[in-house]
Amino acid sequence: MSKEYIIYIDEIILVIILLFRFIPKDKIREAHVAYLFKLLMTCSVGLAVAEFRLIEYPIRFFPYAIKANFLFEFFLYPAICAIFVVNYPEKKRTLSKFIYYFYYCTTLTIIEIIEERYTDILTYIHWNWFITWLAFFVTFYLSQKYNKWFFKK
What we know:
Keywords: Membrane, Transmembrane, Transmembrane helix. By secondary structure, the chain is an all-alpha fold. It is built from 5 helices and 2 strands. The radius of gyration is 16 Å and the shape is globular. The relative contact order is 0.17.
């Protein structure tokens, strides 16, 4: 088994543990809505990025069916977004909210940079780390605002 598939398995296990740890039972509905909204965005944007060869995924699940990284676009990223939205510091100051965004976006970007440089999980073609960070920020922002609107009382 290649190191890429070991990384995939580790990421799956880690995200499942994080889901059970950081999503309270009383917020499972919010997590589902955040997951599905993020899935809608990553499905369209992730497929477009792969189709236009901005990023290439040399080793992926379902290589004949989809050019995007199925695991990341359809499970890992939406699940992390669900954790992000459910734990969003709604009543904190603006600086705290920005730090929350910055922490999530930067952590995910660093992981992606490491995977891009040292594995065959992805290869930047017409892409860079700043576009990744910005995409994370915008999609997290849209997901959080959508959930806030959806569950408005």
